Amino acid sequence: MSVQATARITAASGRHGTTVLPVLESGGPLAVRRTRAARPDWARVTMVGAMSAPLNGDRLAVEVRAGAAARLTVGSAAATVALPGPGPGADPATYDILLEAGEGAELHWLPEQTVSAHRSVLTTTTRAELAATARLVLREEQILGRYGEPAGTLTGRLTVRRAGRPLLDQQLAYGPGAPGGWDAGAVLGGHSAVGQLLVVDPDFEAGPPEPALLGPTAALTPLAGPAVLVTALAADARLLRELLDEALERLTGHR
């Protein structure tokens, strides 16, 4: 039997510059817990898997809202492993993520990797709605297949709007059924780990970072707006995280 579940997280500005969490709602396999933040004016939430998911046919969603002047980091305790369903003919699993940040808010979406196991089929959608003065740090990492196995089918779409206007809209697809050439030399070139880091910061309007190569398999690209997108390939999850951590420190001063 497939699972349908939604987890909800809402952060708001509290007294003396703190951030409070008026809504912390778990759903199905998505358990959310408040954990210790690195800075006293921030709140941090960690998602903990309460059961194996997503399986083919599951419908999972996470809604994260950071109100005006709130500062929130959302991470996860472990990788999300997309698995095949218990029987043949199951529908693809879906994982929908909604991120909202109000005026003066700062939201960091930093989950662990998504692992696309062999024969799994997962479609993810991430939508971010940002106020004009909001800041966003978003990291996505995909591992195509567990050790020694081919990739499953993984499709992901990322849409970001700032002050009601489009900032980024892209779709990526890997594995069986994806458009031809997804694993060719001009795309993955034999790498099984792929990721991206998006930083949206109103301060970039005064002087965005210059385009740059970050080693042989990563690139920093300014967007048409106060934002930067880093894309990276690596042989494994550890090397991919190192690349994205270095890029994050370069852009924000923090890992």
Automatic annotation (TrEMBL):
<dbReference type="InterPro" id="IPR002669">
    <property type="entry name" value="UreD"/>
</dbReference>
<protein>
    <recommendedName>
        <fullName>Urease accessory protein UreD</fullName>
    </recommendedName>
</protein>
<dbReference type="GO" id="GO:0016151">
    <property type="term" value="F:nickel cation binding"/>
</dbReference>
<keyword id="KW-0996">Nickel insertion</keyword>
<comment type="subunit">
    <text>UreD, UreF and UreG form a complex that acts as a GTP-hydrolysis-dependent molecular chaperone, activating the urease apoprotein by helping to assemble the nickel containing metallocenter of UreC. The UreE protein probably delivers the nickel.</text>
</comment>
<dbReference type="Pfam" id="PF01774">
    <property type="entry name" value="UreD"/>
</dbReference>
<keyword id="KW-0143">Chaperone</keyword>
<comment type="function">
    <text>Required for maturation of urease via the functional incorporation of the urease nickel metallocenter.</text>
</comment>
<keyword id="KW-0963">Cytoplasm</keyword>
<dbReference type="GO" id="GO:0005737">
    <property type="term" value="C:cytoplasm"/>
</dbReference>
<comment type="similarity">
    <text>Belongs to the UreD family.</text>
</comment>
